[in-house]
Write a structure and sequence with these properties.
Elements lengths: L1 H6 L9 H7 L10 H23 L6 E7 L7 E2 L1 H8 L11 E7 L3 E7 L7 H16 L5 E6 L3 E5 L7 H9 L9 H14 L5 E7 L10 H4 L5 E6 L6 H10 L4 E4 L5 H12 L2
Parallel strand pairs: 4-5, 4-7, 7-8, 8-9
Antiparallel strand pairs: 1-3, 2-3, 5-6
């Protein structure tokens, strides 16, 4: 980045990466030079990640306790209660009576579906990028897929591919924001992505106001999800009824979001519930 800044005489110290993130998706912002565009996206991505990291705080892996028979020494801590239950009434303990417990990381695969239609340009898209970064920081990189959608849906990172969080954010900010809102296409692509996953613990997260202005009826596609959660961005044109029907069909729930500025914190709350 420093080399590009020197070449174009860009005063890096005076640049506000968040301002770049807010403005880079506005319709009037056009950066034709690919190197300069990449420079701007990288600068914006780092600012977005910094906001997400300050919200998430110290990263802690989601873990759960596993209990199993002792197979080798020092494989875990002795589960005294379970072991005593097994040996109760026996003159001598048997090998399978010894029970240990240890913590294992709990994996969860998630597909995040984000509206990138025209109404999302500017600060809304920057906040959506912070929201995706929050989720990226809570998951292993290979356990997150992000689908963006306007007239059509597109996958910018797939399950099983360990794209760094900064690259996921950069790709979001590189999207040509515009067009209509095809929720059906987003759900179809998101469901197909989750069906590629091998972890039974998997969920879809849809950010939408529920107003579909392109594509067919999204409701039948919600049934393809074992768990579908809808973050309903509230405004005057929202459709909470459709959002509730989508979540019910997908075995999930609806989480209202008062404004896009509240979206990252709301995502953190949802992630803490979904991933536990």
């Amino acid at each position: 980045m420093a080399a590009i800044a020197d070449r174009y005489e860009v005063p890096v110290e005076g640049l506000d990466g968040w301002d770049v993130a807010v403005n880079i998706t506005r319709p009037g912002c056009r950066i034709s030079d690919p190197d300069l565009r990449m420079f701007a996206e990288r600068l914006a991505s780092r600012a977005v990640l910094a906001r997400a990291a300050s919200l998430v705080g110290p990263l802690r892996l989601v873990t759960h306790i596993v209990r199993e028979n002792l197979r080798e020494p020092f494989a875990g801590e002795l589960d005294l209660d379970a072991t005593l239950d097994n040996v109760l009434g026996k003159p001598f303990p048997e090998a399978e009576d010894w029970v240990i417990q240890h913590r294992e990381e709990r994996h969860h695969q998630v597909v995040l579906m984000v509206d990138t239609s025209l109404s999302m340009s500017g600060e809304n898209m920057a906040m959506a990028a912070v929201t995706a970064a929050v989720l990226a920081l809570k998951l292993r990189p290979e356990d997150l897929s992000v689908v963006v959608f306007d007239d059509v849906a597109e996958t910018i990172t797939q399950l099983g591919v360990a794209d760094p969080a900064e690259e996921v954010v950069r790709r979001m900010l590189d999207q040509p924001v515009g067009g209509y809102t095809n929720i059906a296409d987003a759900l179809e692509l998101g469901a197909a992505e989750l069906e590629r996953g091998r972890n039974p613990r998997r969920s879809g997260l849809l950010i939408t106001d529920g107003i579909a202005t392109a594509g067919g009826d999204p409701l039948p596609l919600a049934h393809r999800f074992s768990r579908l959660f809808v973050l309903l961005t509230e405004d005057y044109k929202m459709d909470p009824v459709l959002c509730r029907r989508l979540a019910d069909a997908g075995g999930g729930d609806v989480f209202p979001v008062g404004s896009f500025r509240q979206l990252p914190a709301r995502m953190l709350d949802v992630a803490n519930r979904v991933l536990r």
